[in-house]
């Protein structure tokens, strides 16, 4: 049986419109016929009033997140009041909860601000972790003389062939000096040895 839409005020004074579904069965037919004139109408009225009573004890946040608990509370109230009619309530389910449009917009803005807040917190944590890693890398490079040169060579190797781009690297002076020294050494090894003339006889 449908519970018609009901206007109710939550504990924090928010007007809402709510409806639901009532499930019940007749366990003693004679009581359902004799003790009450129209058991369907009567149990529907009890469900409606109990729905308003339970909603009035809930805040809006509870109403939106605790539907199952609300259904159980309404079910207990209705079953207690209709037990002598030979009826057994097997379940109550909340279907739709409607609220003013302005309140919906406010809740949407609040949810958006909450998501933005979480995104900023995540970004800040990532920046903090990156700065810690950079500090560790800086200490490692400072402790190892060749670490910076190795990192520079890795960067150059990672660029790959990019014919359409021009890349300018600030290479440390000590690397240039090392390369120049190796080049001079290789040149000296590749030149043939100078042949000196033989000394004159008797010299």
Q: Strand percentage, roughly?
A: 15-25%
Quaternary organisation: single chain
The CATH first-level class of the largest domain comes to: Alpha Beta
Kindly report the name of the CATH homologous superfamily of the largest domain.
Answer: Band 7 domain
State the share of residues found in helices, binned by percent. 55-70%
> Structural class of the helices, strands and pairings?
alpha+beta
- Spans of at least 5 consecutive residues with low confidence: none
Radius of gyration: 42 Å
Number of domains: 2
Distance between the termini: 134 Å
* Spatial order of strands in the largest sheet: 1-2-3
What is the approximate shape? rod-shaped
Run of helices and strands:
EEHHHHEHHH
Work out the helix count.
7
Overall residue-averaged pLDDT value: 76
Give the topology, please:
Layout: E1 2-9, E2 15-26, H1 29-34, H2 39-56, H3 60-65, H4 67-82, E3 87-98, H5 101-143, H6 147-159, H7 173-190
Antiparallel strand pairs: 1-2, 2-3
Fold and architecture overview:
It is a single chain. The chain is α+β, with helices and mostly antiparallel strands. The protein folds into two domains: about 1-100, Band 7 domain (Tetrahydropterin Synthase, Chain A), CATH 3.30.479; about 100-155. Helix content is about 60%, strand content about 15%. It contains seven helices and three strands, in the order ββααααβααα. It has helices at about 30-35, 40-55, 60-65, 65-80, 100-145, 145-160, 175-190, and strands spanning about 1-10, 15-25, 85-100. It has a three-stranded antiparallel beta sheet with strand order 1-2-3. Strand 1 (about 1-10) and strand 2 form a beta hairpin. Helix 2 (about 40-55) packs across helix 4 (about 65-80). The protein is rod-shaped. The protein starts with a strand and ends in a 13-residue tail after the last helix. The model has no long low-confidence stretch (mean pLDDT about 75).
